[in-house]
Amino acid sequence: MFNDAPGNAASGQIAIYDPESNMEKRILLLQGHPDTTERHFGHELADAYAAGAGKGGHAVRRIEVAALDFPLLRSEREWEQGLLPPSLREAQQAIKWAEHLVLFFPLWLGDMPAIFKGFLEQVARPGFAFTGEGNNPFLRKGLTGRSARLVVTMGMPALIYRWYFRAHSVKSLERNILGFVGIAPIHETLIGGVGNLSQEDGEAWLVKLEALGRKGA
């Protein structure tokens, strides 16, 4: 399940690269692309970020969400009282371990893919994402002290998504999920026109992601 190569997450779900010395920041990369049959630009972006983070002396862990086996939640009772699927226990531990989370996903029908949303719903359980007393689990946010970056690829120009659509789904994720559990600040990298990117533009984005990884940003 674990692999010590920073640039290539294992097909066995979770990979880890922990430098023995000069560790600057603990970073968790969450790959939200649903397709496990082939590599996409989002996988290359994650590889570039991981490579930069390794060069910057950061500790890096990676989770390929689509490789995990878990059901979708179907009721509030399941979310509050149901048992966490065994495949997600390590994911929760990795989130708790991290100081900085980087979420990679494509924009599908204006939002994150369903499997990635289902993953976030599963791991953001009361008692983990929230702590409290008695019957109220929402008294204190459970994931404060962590920052995040969203790396979102899309077919439309990023400027149109940001200004015409107001980046609605990304803002919802920031406000209603990540911010709700205490993760802040949250930064965005929106990459549009991925279906028509030239090789030069694609490589430029990889350089940018590697630089972000080196800084742990």
UniProtKB/TrEMBL annotation:
Q: Which InterPro entries does the UniProt entry name for this protein? A: Flavodoxin_fold (IPR003680), Flavoprotein-like_sf (IPR029039), NAD(P)H_dehydrogenase_qn (IPR051545)
Coiled-coil intervals: none
One example of the protein's molecular function in GO is: NAD(P)H dehydrogenase (quinone) activity
Q: Does the keyword DNA repair apply?
A: no
Q: List, alphabetically, the GO terms of the cellular component aspect.
A: cytosol
- One Pfam family matching this protein: Flavodoxin_2
Oxidoreductase in keyword set: yes
Task: Provide the alphabetized UniProt keywords.
Answer: Oxidoreductase
* Domain of life the protein comes from: Bacteria
Q: Which residues form the Flavodoxin-like fold domain?
A: 25-200
Give the matching PANTHER family: NAD P H OXIDOREDUCTASE-RELATED, NAD(P)H DEHYDROGENASE [QUINONE] 1 ISOFORM 1
- Report the family membership: Belongs to the NAD(P)H dehydrogenase (quinone) family.
Q: What is this protein called?
A: Putative NADPH-quinone reductase
What organism is listed for this UniProt entry? Paucimonas lemoignei
